[in-house]
Write a structure and sequence with these properties.
Elements (H helix, E strand, L loop, with lengths): L2 E9 L2 E11 L4 E7 L2 H16 L7 H12 L6 H22 L3 H5 L6 E7 L8 H7 L1 H10 L4 E4 L32 H18 L4 E5 L6 H11 L6 E3 L7 H10 L4 E3 L5 H10 L5 E4 L1 H4 L1 H14 L4 E3 L5 H13 L6 E3 L1 H4 L2 H5 L6 E2 L2 E3 L12 H4 L4 E7 L7
Parallel strand pairs: 4-5, 4-11, 5-6, 6-7, 7-8, 8-9, 9-10
Antiparallel strand pairs: 1-2, 1-14, 2-3, 4-13, 12-13
Helix pairs in contact: 1-3, 2-3, 3-12, 5-6, 6-7, 8-9, 10-12
The chain binds magnesium ion.
Magnesium ion (MG) binds next to loops.
Length: about 400
């Protein structure tokens, strides 16, 4: 199980996604994925990570993780380096599972549960205009999700009232989701208008669906406290990243000064960042993004750390199909998995164009009917696409380009 070749692949059509394929001498191919500024991650993989992995054993995942991390964390626990480590780590787990003939969850802890509830993050997609829905017809949106069996939805009804970047300044790389600066004042009218979404959902379906509030770190602590207090009567399941998750002490004020549970955060990388949050009692739910925070190896540790504080984890996916499958393996195996995020329009849309199987979803729950490894791979035709950019590093330089 020696690593002989590492290939990265990105598509013009999906300018934020990057996949990595790790090939072994015995002909296996493992798949990993990450998201955001893929050219930077591609450079990290080939210029930094590949020389440390080529010729090495797939089995030694922990040593590879530590070697890559200890070399990369000179620059902190974030950035393209962590995304590269995350993608590579997932590919190594995929290879290990294929070698063992077992789904990854069986290599983590076996199957702890039969399925996991899903929640829908309400972005607009070609099939479902869910963001328009929560801004304009929240009742219809809630009824639609309840009818599909979803037990939770996630909306961001106050983002639009935070300072916005004028469209002229949005001109950046295609697909880049620019955020405006942090808001320091929220008018009573805007506070009420955001609350209207929650009231309409409750009016339409009562408590048949849980409501999570996303904040995209658009507010200062004072506004966040104001939003949280306004939400208290509606019993929302969590508020997420209403402020930047960079200060455990400030997050603890949200925990202590309001009754709304706090979910923190896909923006934290490695167990060291979660340690601060958990030790200081600054969150109720650990949101983990497998393709950002350090892959499957690190996500297991973060979830287990949360478990020692009697807290659940809830994986994040608003990005790509391999991320979703990797996270579902964690949900299958780890005892403190709470709920899994999906975007229904992605699962029923472009994910199907990219990978060779859908996630099995019935009545708003995902099932773990996975073959060996991740149990999913990119469709072979993806590599042959005209808009594919492929870069290769190999033990035998004659097959590198
Ligand atoms: Mg989020």
């Amino acid at each position: 199980m020696k690593i002989v070749r590492i290939e990265t692949l990105r598509l013009t059509e999906h300018p934020n996604l990057l996949w990595v394929h790790v090939f072994t001498a015995d002909g296996l191919k493992g798949t990993g994925e990450t998201f955001y500024i893929p050219a930077a991650v591609e450079a990290v993989i080939h210029d930094f990570a590949a020389p440390m992995l080529l010729g090495k054993s797939v089995f030694d995942r922990e040593r590879h993780w530590q070697n890559l991390f200890s070399s990369a964390n000179f620059f902190g626990y974030a950035g393209a380096e962590m995304r590269a480590i995350s993608a590579l780590d997932i590919a190594l787990w995929d290879l290990l599972g294929q070698y063992a003939g077992q789904p990854i969850f069986n290599l983590i802890g076996g199957q702890f549960r039969e399925n996991i509830p899903l929640y829908n993050t309400c972005v607009n997609t070609p099939k479902y205009l869910d963001q328009d829905g929560f801004l304009n017809q929240p009742g219809d949106l809630a009824r639609s999700l309840v009818s599909q069996g979803y037990s939770q939805l996630k909306v961001w009804p106050w983002d639009r009232f935070a300072p916005q970047i004028e469209s002229a300044r949005l001109a950046g790389p295609a697909g880049w989701s620019a955020m405006g600066p942090v808001g320091h004042y929220l008018s009573p009218q805007d506070l009420r208008q955001g609350l209207w979404t929650i009231q309409e959902i409750r009016k339409a379906v009562g408590d048949k669906i849980e409501i999570a509030i996303e904040g995209h770190s658009r507010w200062d602590l004072n506004c966040a406290l104001r939003i949280a207090r306004a939400l208290e009567p509606y019993d929302v399941i969590w508020m997420e990243d209403i402020i930047q998750p960079d200060s455990p002490a400030d997050l603890r004020r949200l925990v202590q000064e309001t009754r709304v549970p706090q979910c923190v955060s896909e923006r934290l990388f490695t167990k060291f960042a979660y340690r601060q949050i958990l030790e200081q009692q600054s969150a109720h739910i650990a949101m983990i993004d497998v393709i950002w925070t350090g892959g499957i190896t690190e996500s297991i540790k973060i979830a287990t750390l949360a478990d020692t504080y009697h807290l659940p984890f809830a994986p994040h996916d608003c990005t790509g199909p391999i991320n979703l499958f990797a996270a579902l393996h964690l949900c299958a195996a780890l005892p403190n998995a709470m709920i899994m995020e999906v975007v229904r329009g992605f699962c029923e849309g472009y994910y199907l164009d990219l990978v060779d199987r859908p996630v099995t979803i019935r009545e708003g729950r995902a099932y773990f009917d996975f073959g060996p490894g991740l149990g999913v791979r990119l469709r072979p035709e993806v590599s042959a696409r005209k808009d594919a950019q492929i870069r290769t590093s190999a033990v035998d330089p004659s097959i590198s380009k």
